[in-house]
């Protein structure tokens, strides 16, 4: 039985020859077959003499009187979809091949990059220590921030309690109704071992917050006040529970201010001004989820336009390097942002992305395409490439792309972006981050029954590898401007 590849029926030996040849030049079999077809068509269209044509024409003449054989019913699933896939370049083929590459293959080639020369490693360690010490002392000396720092030191992010606090701090700022806030507090606090933290911190704020978390945790974990002691019931009672909830809400909002610069762009710009005066640079993100409807997408589009106007005015002509920028979440601009809707994405989402980019160029502020789930990476790269070759954006270096370092494809994405920057004759702003989808990528791969994962399965490993990727990016930074964050 022959194997059907790209609509051409081949025997197994020929199929293996194609695969072997494609591997030698680091391309896919589909790409090689398409190139062969294009090459042959070009020769025919140029009326070139082909040695096999006379024999074929002679055979066709001899068989003209014979009945034509019945057409084979050769249904090929997904053939129409496969024909839409454009031939991949070497760099894009490498990205695709590394999607769920085995860690035993992916890790060794990165380990050497993760080892800095000893003098540089010592300098980096000393710089990190100095920065951390200064920031810690600065926060301790400044009221509200100092209280938050004490709370974070007590509840480590490696503990269940610390993770629960971070979830609350980030989420409570975006929840407008009391019922949902109470439900979230019940969910995150009910399982915490808060009693073990009582009295351990010298900060009155931390100890007070711990008692509040202990009381609230017991209340929400039992959902039954009769199980508590009479004294606790007298303190909290029917009117006390909302009071404790309010205390937790206030503590979490205070802590959330350390991670969310502002609830609006105007507020964020105002809060960032002091650090900007000290030399810090900001790229603003719009907190939100993916659009589920066309109305959602339109609302996000308007929000992005307003944000670019606000950031552009605040930049006041400082340019893409010295002024602030913005990150765009593409899934917020279209409700069907997936490879299965490729044509719609290119026809409907791309004009919105181009419009926002042109608006950013008017103010000369940087605009980054934000990182999202692993299965959206390649369509994001397609949109980026199309954007880089827009004549209206020629000569402008404000386009950027966010790369997630924990993905196995990260080094190959860097290679591709360097190649894209060279071909489009521009500098790209590269923002290298750890990423925010690690847990969901692991879970999704397990639910789908896949053999591998698009991310490294050991968090400690990819954190160490990040330093190597930063070093590599910095060493090859001539065509683009790397801006590394979340190290």
TrEMBL record:
Residue ranges occupied by any Proline utilization A proline dehydrogenase N-terminal domain in the UniProt entry: 89-136
Stretches assigned to the PutA RHH domain: 11-43
InterPro entries, sorted: Arc_rbn_hlx_hlx, FAD-linked_oxidoreductase-like, PRODH, PRODH_PutA_dom_I, PRODH_PutA_dom_I/II, PRODH_PutA_dom_II, Proline_DH_dom, Proline_metab_enzyme
Gene Ontology cellular-component annotations: cytoplasmic side of plasma membrane
Source species, domain of life: Bacteria
Keywords: NAD, Oxidoreductase
Domain Proline dehydrogenase PutA: from-to ranges: 148-259
Keyword Transmembrane: no
A biological process term (GO) from this entry: regulation of DNA-templated transcription
Domain Proline dehydrogenase: 268-459
GO molecular function ontology, one term from the record: proline dehydrogenase activity
Name assigned to this protein: Bifunctional protein putA
Gene that this sequence comes from: putA_1
